[in-house]
Design brief:
The protein has about 260 residues and is of the alpha/beta class. About 45% of the residues lie in helices and about 15% in strands.
């Protein structure tokens, strides 16, 4: 693996065990970064780390449940022990789905607390853990939060998910103001439909609710996307990589949309 734009930068990626987080970790490692991988699923993290190393990159596995602030501190201490102070955080951990599954009185209880604890509180814990372990300046350091197009508009039954992702945009703006004096750039990305396990679970939920096939539900969902297709995790990873480089100098407190035109 040839060192390049992110050579010798240490970036922590949460949610790195699958989907968008995995793609981000692989892309940043390919750009020369040393990546610390954070998620709950240790076996999957080890698999991603193996992919990074097979390509010549450096990866450390630092498992934890981000809803537990003490566990986050332990994981981030482990990351620093492996690769030194942190130059960047990509907060991609999150859970989705409706408030209850299935949405009927016989289903599980309301998931509002669980979703908000993970998506909002968990991200906040990781942001503060990063702030306490930042590499020294004067070069820019970076925090990128993966939100969602559902931070932009409401979806029935997804109250917790919409609320948690919208809250992340406020967290990013305030944090950008707080950290600007330290030359830390803080930004959010709002993906739309991305070809991941979480997205297909949403498509399957639509199919069940509408009494149609998975393919039909997919086609209906894509009608709301001007480009008419799902994105790929690698597309989001490319935007993250750009935000972590000097090409994005001056970009802070912003929300970047990569959702095929679903929000414009």
């Amino acid at each position: 693996m040839t060192a390049s734009r992110l050579s010798d930068r240490h970036v922590v990626v949460t949610g790195a065990s699958s989907g968008i987080g995995r793609a981000i970790a692989l892309r940043l490692a390919g750009e020369g970064a040393r990546v610390s991988l954070v998620a709950r699923r240790v076996e999957q993290l080890e698999g991603v780390a193996a992919e990074v190393r097979a390509a010549g990159g450096q990866a450390a596995v630092c498992p934890c449940d981000i809803t537990d602030s003490a566990a986050v501190d332990v994981a981030f201490d482990s990351a620093v022990a492996a690769f030194g102070p942190i130059h960047g955080l990509v907060a991609a951990s999150g859970i989705g789905g409706p408030n209850s599954v299935p949405r009927d009185p016989s289903g599980p209880g309301d998931r509002f607390d669980t979703i908000v604890q993970t998506n909002l509180y968990g991200t906040y814990h990781c942001l503060r853990a990063t702030e306490a372990r930042l590499a020294p300046g004067p070069d820019a350091r970076h925090i990128v939060v993966i939100a969602s197009v559902l931070a932009r508009f409401g979806v029935p039954g997804y109250t917790a998910y919409c609320a948690s992702k919208a809250a992340l945009l406020g967290l990013v703006r305030a944090s950008a103001m707080e950290l600007a004096g330290q030359n830390v750039q803080v930004n959010a990305i709002c993906p739309g439909w991305v070809d991941t396990e979480m997205a297909w679970e949403g498509i399957d939920g639509m199919a069940a609710a509408m009494g149609v096939t998975r393919q039909k539900a997919h086609d209906i969902a894509m009608r709301a996307v001007p480009l008419g297709r799902m994105g790929q995790p690698e597309h989001v990873a490319g935007m993250v990589a750009w935000l972590l480089t000097p090409d994005a100098t001056g970009v802070t407190g912003q929300t970047l949309d990569i959702n095929g035109g679903a929000w414009m």
